[in-house]
Every structure is written in C-alpha cells, then in structure tokens.
Amino acid sequence: MTSIADIENMIVRTGLGDRAAFSDLYNATSAKLFGVCLRVLNNRAEAEDALQDVFVKIWQKASGYAVNGYSPMTWLITVARNLSIDRLRARKAPAKTIDEAHDLADSSPTPEMAMVQKSERAQIDGCLDELDQGHAMAVRGAYLDGETYQDLADRAGVPINTMRTWLRRSLVKLKDCLSR
Amino acid sequence: MTQDRDHSENDIALAGEYALHLLDAESRLAFETRLAQDTALQQLVREWDEDFVSFSEGFAPVTPPARMKSQIDARLFGPEKSGFSLQGLFGRRFAYLAFASLAALAIIAGPVVFNTATAPEYVAEIAGEDRSLVVAAAYDQETAELSINRTAGAAIAGRSLELWLIAEGATAPVSLGVLSDAQLATVIIPEDLRDLMLGGTLAISDEPIGGSPTGAPTGAVLAAGEIISS
C-alpha cells in the first residue's frame, strides 16, 4: 500500500527529473486522478486527454512542489481538477445549446459513491450544513460539477449577481466555520 | 469593522471563487497576477484547495487505458530511444530543487579557435556514458567565454539540447542556454556564475524545442562532465 509519505517522495524525486519515480507516481495515482477527470468532464475521451495534460503538468511542475506547501494528494487532485475544468470551460465557451446544458447537469453521483463521499466529508459537510441549503448546494455544484455562476444562477432561478453575492457570503461563513 | 478585515473577507471570498473556478477569464488572470507575488493570498488558496479536496474523496478511481502512460512519456520525452540517463546526478546533488532562474542567454554560434595563445584555463568534457553525445568545453576566465565544440551527437528531431551549470554546493542547476545546431558555439557566462565554474559540472539535457519550460531540467540528462583546471 502506498502511503502519503511515499507519494510525497515520488513527487519530490519527479521534480528532480527522476523518470522511474514519475512512473511510480503514475502507477500509484493515475486511477484516482482519472476518476477526478471523469467526474468533472463526464466524457471518457476528454478525460483521457485531460489525464495526459495532468501528468505532463505534474512532470513540469513537480520541482516547485517542495515549496508550495500543499499536501501531496491535494496538489495532484487540484492539478487534475483545474485542467479538467479548463477543458470543460473550453467546451462550453461557444454558445451552448439546451442539449449540452442537459448533458452537463446529468452527473449526479451513484448511490455507492454518494455514501463514500458522505462518510469522508464530515467537516466540510458539517460547515455547509450551517449555510442556507440553496447556498450550500451552489458550493457543492461549483466544486463537484464545475458549474459556473451562470449555471448556478439558472438552476436556482436567480440573477447571476444575486448568486455571486450569495456564494461569496457563503464562502466567508464557510471559512469561518472551517477554521474553528 | 476595520478596513483590513473587509479586505481580508474580500480576499477569502475571492480565493474561494478562484479555487472553485468561478471567476471569469479576466478576473482569473487578474487574480493570478496578484497571487504570483502575494504569499498570504497563496496560503488562502491553498487552504481552500485543502478544504474542497475532501469533496473528491468519494470519486471512484478508474484505471486509465494501458496505452496512456506511453503516450504521456512520448509527449514528455520524445520517441523511445536507447541511451542512458544521468538523472541521478541532479538527484544526488540537490536535496531541494528550488525554482531555478532560467538564464535566458543567447548562444552565439560562430567559429571558435581552441589552443590559441590565450589558452583557456578551465576545460570540461561533457559526454554521455555511451559517448553518443560528446561536447568539449573550454572556459576563458578573462573573457568569461565558454567555448563549446560538439564532436558527437545532436538533438533528436523536434527537441533541443540545453546546457546546465551545476555549481558545487549549489541549490539548483542553472541553465546556460539552448545549444544551437552549429558544432561550435560560444556562451558568455553571466557575472554571478563566473566564480562557480571551477569544480562545477556542466550537463546537457534533452528538452522541448527552445529549452525547458520550467527553468529546471525536464528531460533526460544525456551528458555531463566536471569543469577542471587545464
């Protein structure tokens, strides 16, 4: 079983140009990171392209890892999510049709997945529970489905500026709760 | 409520919006410009990333197709080729590889005459183990010129060869520039590196066209050699 310390060591060695460590890192984390890409993009071909970008970026940026202060899995998952969302946004950039909007909305987790999420997200969920339910849903939608302010506003049936104000206030409250 | 507190609440929200990817392209770019030089802001973003990452704990891992890794390697390292790697060289010498400042140096291609009256004081043979790439280097302290003579090997198609100085006890390799296709070249060594030449190691790595995008070697180290007094 690969420990967090092992992953950290692999990233640092990858940053030193060690290709064997890079392969170890790929073997240890690619399934998890592919899961992240698939979840955001909800499309296998695009997720495969995204995963390639993810590991190219990991190779290129690993030398800066030691000084960025991130825990190893957070760094890797954040790279994977950010690159996947970049792809998602590029896909959505052209005037989007109603069909596309439907595709994107249809990505709720399976019951099994939802259960795992529930058990491992006690802290942030506890803090989200302190928010208005609609606002908490917006924060989750933004993270889990990569939704934009426009998506969130459409879903809630409010103007985009109202959604922005809600979400920004929610973030301040959430931060306050999480740092308690 | 004080000005400071307002400012920090604004930044807390902004950093959260950034971490969630909610900023539009223009605001995102503006935020990244600030982020690059504001460590407090970097910490806010990091905290949000750490908080939000727990959402992804439930994402089911999915094994990617087997061909994926070789496709990634091909993108990063070019076509598969034999040859050896001196990667360990960097690894052994540097426990912490900080961001190396990429010395954007022009390498002036042109005739170089070795063994003239002003004989170079320091020399190095930068070679791979199988001698598929061999570069003779001579450094003239007075003119700060490093003369390069590539006697064997070349960059592979679509890739560049980048020259690095690993100074003794240094924290990171420093780029001396990308080698041109010409056999002979001269590099003017920047002032802050001149005293570090003797005892240092020159190394050549395989990089994307135009050199490493990161300021640190990204590809295989193809050749290396210590700078010694002639």
UniProtKB/TrEMBL annotation, chain A:
This is RNA polymerase sigma-70 factor (ECF subfamily). Residues 122-174 form the RNA polymerase sigma factor 70 region 4 type domain. Residues 25-92 form the RNA polymerase sigma-70 region domain. Signal peptide: none annotated. InterPro entries: RNA_pol_sigma-70-like, RNA_pol_sigma-70_dom, RNA_pol_sigma70_r2, RNA_pol_sigma70_r4_t2, RNA_pol_sigma_r2, RNA_pol_sigma_r3/r4-like, WH-like_DNA-bd_sf. The keyword rRNA-binding does not apply. Belongs to the sigma-70 factor family. ECF subfamily. The keyword Mitochondrion does not apply. One of its GO terms (biological process) is DNA-templated transcription initiation. GO terms for molecular function: DNA binding; sigma factor activity. Keywords: Sigma factor, Transcription, Transcription regulation.
Automatic annotation (TrEMBL), chain B:
It is found in: Cell membrane; Membrane. InterPro entries: Anti-sigma-K/W_factor (IPR051474), Anti_sigma_zinc_sf (IPR041916), RskA_C (IPR018764). Keywords: Cell membrane, Membrane, Transmembrane, Transmembrane helix. Residues 99-221 form the Anti-sigma K factor RskA C-terminal domain. GO terms for biological process: regulation of translation. GO terms for cellular component: plasma membrane. It is a single-pass membrane protein. One of its GO terms (molecular function) is sigma factor antagonist activity. Its main location: membrane. The keyword Transmembrane applies. The chain crosses the membrane at residues 94-114. It holds the Pfam family RskA_C. PANTHER family: ANTI-SIGMA-K FACTOR RSKA. This is Regulator of SigK. It comes from Pacificibacter maritimus.
